[in-house]
Amino acid sequence: MWIGGFGWLIGFSLVTIPDTLLFWRPIAGGAVLTLAGVLVMERAALRAPRYLAGLIALFVAVAGAYWIAVCEPAVAAAPEVVARLRRLRASTHVPPAFVWVAGVVGVIQLLWAWRRSRSEPPDVAPHFLDWL
User: Fold this and answer.
1) Is 89 exposed, middle or buried (0-12, 13-18, 19+ CB in 10 A)?
2) In degrees rounded to 5, what are phi and psi of residue 24?
């Protein structure tokens, strides 16, 4: 989960080599965002795994929104990085529709998991001999 969570940030650092230090602010903000997201997902995986799929989808949406709002403008403001990416025929654009779909899917998965947890009958098996 940790490698997957930080994968987008590792990719951002690799894309901007040798000018990575110019982007220290977006990278630091992404590291804080990713650390918070991964810690929440790790806690959910241990305590309530049914919520994990929805949390992963929401994290993808939040990371995508951060990319669109912070990282993509920072890359666009560095002409040498844009020229290098153009030579490599690479793109750093994340479609906003992707962020919306990931967010909607995450919310639906979380609501489904919450509804399922409320509709399950309580575990009464350990107490069936209490009347003895």
Assistant:
1) exposed
2) -65, -35
DSSP 33-94: HHHHHHHHHHHHHHH-GGGHHHHHHHHHHHHHHHIIIIIHHHHHT-HHHHHHHHHTT-----
| Average pLDDT of the residues in 86-97 | 87
d(CA 122, CA 98) in angstroms, rounded, equals 38
Digit-coded pLDDT (tens) for 111-129: 998 888 776 665 555 555 5
What's the rounded Cα separation, in Å, for the pair 54 and 110?
5
User: Alpha-carbon distance 78 to 23, whole Å?
Assistant: 9
Interhelix angle 52-66/96-119, nearest 10 degrees: 160
**What is the C-alpha to C-alpha distance for residues 38 and 51, in angstroms, rounded to an integer?**
13
Q: Which residues contact 80 (CB under 8 A, 6 or more apart)?
A: 19
Compute the distance between CA of residue 15 and CA of residue 82 in angstroms, rounded to an integer.
10
